[in-house]
Design brief:
Layout (H helix, E strand, L loop, with lengths): L4 E2 L9 E2 L21 E5 L5 H10 L3 E5 L2 H5 L3 E4 L4 H10 L3 H9 L4 E4 L1 H6 E4 L11 E6 L10 E5 L9 E5 L4 E5 L5 E6 L2 E7 L2 E4 L10 H13 L4
Parallel strand pairs: 1-12, 3-4, 3-5, 5-6, 6-14, 7-8
Antiparallel strand pairs: 2-9, 8-11, 9-10, 12-13, 13-14
């Protein structure tokens, strides 16, 4: 399958230094959800929770925070936000959410992981030390693949299935996929031949932060996927 591939960001092709908090100023209040809208949780143990909630609400979802197994049981879909993947994984184990989340994924729960969320959904990591992972997407992922915080950047990225031209995205201490381990994994976008958006069944993962730019198309696609998953076959 032919997939979009974006060159490595550079001054010549649109690379722009990421400025912390710059994009979050002056946002309009998010709308209230309509009756019957899907309930989509954002894992709220650590990381960029608020902006995901806002993006999901702009896309028409009933967006809620998830910190307990009871809250997890009530959602139709889940977002794993960016943050510190090792910390989030340890907190999932501490709060006894890891196995219930794996069970719900096994039962078909749609999940969208961004940045640290991509790391958590990966079956393997390209590093010597181990850390808690949820798993589910058959990829080997490298943490901080583009460098440290000062190397974060904004760019435009073509994503398969997303209409309207390249997405406006922020890579902040971002990971990337080093190796796809199974033919069931779809590569939806790449930078320099390294996948940065992948999908396996009902699991979607992106290396960047789509929630901070105001370009909600990937969130909208996830909300639509959650809505489809609620319709009996």
């Amino acid at each position: 399958m032919s997939t979009p591939s974006t060159p490595a960001p550079s001054p010549a092709n649109g690379r722009r230094r990421w400025v912390p908090g710059e994009r979050l100023v002056g946002r309009a209040p998010e709308p209230t959800h309509a009756d019957g809208a899907p309930t989509i949780g954002v894992l709220a143990l650590q990381g960029d929770v608020l902006e995901h909630l806002r993006a999901l609400r702009r896309c028409g979802a009933n967006a809620v925070e998830v910190r307990t197994t009871e809250q997890l049981a009530q959602v139709d879909g889940l977002v794993l936000p960016g943050g510190e993947s090792t910390t989030i994984g340890k907190l999932l184990e501490r709060f006894e959410l890891m196995q219930p989340l794996r069970d719900r994924i096994g039962a078909g729960l749609p999940v969208f992981g961004t940045c640290a969320g991509m790391i958590l959904l990966s079956d393997e990591l390209d590093q010597d030390r181990t850390q808690p992972l949820i798993g589910g997407i058959a990829v080997r992922t490298r943490r901080n693949a583009y460098g440290r915080q000062v190397d974060s950047f904004d760019t435009h990225l073509e994503v398969a299935g997303i209409e309207g031209g390249p997405m406006d995205v922020s890579f902040i201490r971002a990971p990337r996929v080093q190796q796809v381990l199974d033919d069931r994994v779809e590569v939806l976008a790449s930078i320099e031949d390294h996948p940065v958006v992948v999908r396996q069944g009902h699991l979607l993962a992106a290396a960047f932060h789509p929630e901070v730019t105001g370009d909600d198309r990937l969130h909208a696609a996830f909300v639509a996927a959650v809505e489809r998953s609620r319709i009996p076959a």
